[in-house]
Write a structure and sequence with these properties.
This protein is an alpha/beta fold. The chain is built from 12 helices and 12 strands. The strands form 3 sheets. An 8-stranded parallel β-barrel has the order 1-2-3-4-5-6-8-12, surrounded by 5 helices. Strands 7-10 form a two-stranded antiparallel sheet. Strands 9-11 form a two-stranded parallel sheet. α2 packs parallel to α3 and α3 packs across α5.
Length: about 350
């Protein structure tokens, strides 16, 4: 099998003593990813911890360091957000990037709501679990909000609507779904699907079978005119051992081993399942990816860089993985040559 899109997801770690330096390292990592030929770079939005807490702000900066690579959020938890204000921020990034933004979300209550009290926006009614996502998409459609221009600003009378008005972004909205319910909603609502190495056990305790079922549910839920066109991006944690010194090899193998127990059964009341990480040689990684039944029906791979690794670990993962991309990538469409991946020395 072959792939047509290669992406990576970075957590954007930084130390409490030097957040600016850590964020700068992540910006440079995205620039390096572009030079290596990756199709898109994604960031997590993290709250109350040392990571990117404002994905839109960060990607606005990344848009000015890059020229080709797609920029994405995986994901913004909408329980923390005002949909209209977030829509303004995302529309600004879309304009600054020249149309390269992929905006990914999850809905539901904020995980840290109990710590934040009345600081958060109010919850919507329990019977509209995807209410913020619906409101966000509506805001991004930028409807005109009055029948005639209104005065009251320095620019003079204008028709009030969300600006910048960037309608193309509506075609690049993604939803992070781990359950059949969310996959159904994402498909019916015209969002693309993000899925990774975490999923909910519903019909079985076989992770890959459940993920295949999730993809099938999403595609079956697409509006009739869009059936077969909804994109599905699949995340995997990949740790190449080629070119790694003894210390890094042991670190990577130890990390994967430490997380193996959680993959043996569903975890917690929500029956959360995890997929084992892939730590091995490039040949072993390529073989595992080609045999992955979920990737066989999607073709979009997202390398999920582990939390709290060092920047040189992240660079090693991207550089080494880039070496096998030409063999994994599908032949280019006429007039669309595949990106040239630069060779890098071992880290």
């Amino acid at each position: 099998m072959s792939f047509h899109h290669f992406a990576f997801l970075t957590p954007g770690n930084f130390s409490a003593a030097a957040p600016g330096a850590g964020l700068e390292e992540t910006l440079r990592l995205i620039t390096e990813g572009e030079n290596l030929g990756f199709d898109s770079a994604w960031v997590r939005q993290r709250h109350l911890e040392r990571g990117i807490s404002s994905a839109a702000t960060f990607l606005a900066a990344a848009s000015q360091r890059t020229s080709r690579i797609g920029l994405g959020t995986a994901v913004i938890q909408l329980g923390y957000e005002n949909p209209f204000r977030l829509a303004e921020d995302l529309a600004t990034v879309e304009a600054l990037s020249g149309g390269r933004l992929n905006a990914g979300f999850s809905d539901g209550p904020a995980p840290f709501a109990s710590l934040l009290g009345d600081v958060l926006p109010p919850l919507f009614a329990p019977d509209e679990p995807y209410g913020r996502a619906e409101r966000l998409r509506h805001a991004l459609s930028s409807p005109v909000l009055a029948n005639e221009p209104l005065a009251g600003n320095a620019a003079g009378p204008q028709l009030p609507r969300l600006h910048p008005h960037v309608p193309a972004l509506l075609d690049r909205l993604w939803y992070g779904a781990g359950s059949q319910r969310s996959a159904t909603w994402a498909g019916r609502s015209g969002f693309h699907l993000l899925t990774g190495n975490v999923i909910t056990a519903e019909a079985s305790e076989d992770f890959l079978a459940e993920q295949i079922r999730l993809v099938g549910t999403f595609r079956q839920s697409l509006p009739r005119a869009q059936t077969g066109t909804g994109r599905v991006a699949v995340g995997r944690v990949i740790l190449p051992l080629d070119g790694a010194g003894p210390e890094r090899r042991e670190k990577f193998k130890g990390f994967a081993a430490s997380r193996l127990e959680r993959t043996r059964q569903p975890n917690g009341p929500r029956r959360t399942m995890f997929l084992p990480d892939i730590a091995g040689t490039l040949d072993e990684i390529a073989k595992a990816l080609r045999e992955d039944p979920v990737l066989q029906i999607t073709g979009e791979l997202r390398l999920e860089l582990p939390y709290e690794f060092g920047i040189e670990d992240y660079r090693h993962i991207l550089q080494r993985f880039a070496e096998i991309v030409p063999d994994l990538r599908a032949p280019s469409s006429p007039g669309q040559p595949a990106p040239v991946l630069a060779a890098h020395p071992a880290v």
